[in-house]
């Protein structure tokens, strides 16, 4: 997202990221990553729950990837930020999502991840903006 | 539909989501839009 932020800005879009943590944790990560867009916290997961963003079962989260693609699954586990995942405000089973609103605040795109790797591409989000 | 859950559907109004900014200040997603299109990404975790 950060790499293609300019493309979103060309379309006059405001980009916002949300994570399961406090405002302070969001601010710390924002500074650490040097993001060019706001990063906000949802410490009690109210927004995630309101949007009904799914929670993945342990089998689909860890078991199935280890069986189906063991090498890349082990690599993913090794790369995982265990400190962030171990935060009491984190919920490793909760999946993400994406929302696009138009200038009038109408929902034009809403994606609830079906799996942990189900993330809409920047190209898909930019196409939504182009169609507004 | 569970309590607190909002119907979020294409063509519907933006969900009324309140998030936390620096110093834990409540920030409404709608306020960030400022009359522009808005793309909100919900991450799996901070990491």
Key terms:
A: about 130 residues; alpha+beta; two-stranded parallel sheet; 7 helices; 4 strands; about 45% helix; about 15% strand; globular; B: about 45 residues; two-stranded antiparallel sheet; 1 helix; disordered N terminus
Question: If you had to describe this structure to a student in words, what would you say it looks like?
Answer:
The complex is a heterodimer of chains A (about 130) and B (about 45). Chain A is α+β, with helices and mostly antiparallel strands and about 130 residues long. Chain A has helices at about 5-10, 25-35, 45-50, 60-70, 70-80, 80-85, 120-130, and strands at about 15-20, 40, 95-100, 105-110. Chain A has 7 helices and 4 strands. The mean pLDDT of chain A is about 85. Chain B contains 1 helix and 3 strands. Chain B has one helix at about 30-35, and strands spanning about 20, 25-30, 40. A two-stranded antiparallel ribbon of chain B has the order 1-2. With about 45 residues, chain B is of the alpha+beta class. Chain B starts with 17 loop residues before the first strand and ends in a 5-residue tail after the last strand. Helices cover about 10% and strands about 25% of the residues of chain B. Classes of the chains: A alpha+beta (about 130), B alpha+beta (about 45). At the A-B interface, β1, α2, α3, α6 and β3 of A face β1, α1 and β3 of B.
């Amino acid at each position: 997202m950060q790499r293609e932020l300019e493309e979103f800005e060309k379309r006059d879009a405001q980009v916002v990221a949300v994570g399961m943590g406090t405002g302070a944790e969001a601010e710390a990560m924002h500074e650490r990553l040097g993001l060019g867009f706001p990063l906000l916290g949802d410490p009690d997961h109210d927004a995630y729950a309101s949007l009904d963003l799914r929670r993945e079962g342990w089998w689909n989260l860890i078991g199935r990837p280890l069986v189906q693609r063991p090498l890349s699954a082990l690599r993913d586990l090794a790369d995982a930020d265990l400190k962030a995942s171990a935060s009491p405000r984190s919920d490793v089973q909760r999946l993400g999502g994406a929302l696009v609103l138009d200038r009038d605040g109408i929902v034009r795109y809403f994606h609830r991840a079906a799996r942990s790797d189900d993330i809409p591409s920047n190209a898909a989000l930019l196409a939504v903006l182009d169609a507004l | 539909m569970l309590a607190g859950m909002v119907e979020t559907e294409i063509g519907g109004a933006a969900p009324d989501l309140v998030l936390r900014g620096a110093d834990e200040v409540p920030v409404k997603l709608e306020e960030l839009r400022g009359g522009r299109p808005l793309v909100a990404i919900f991450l799996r975790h901070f990491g």
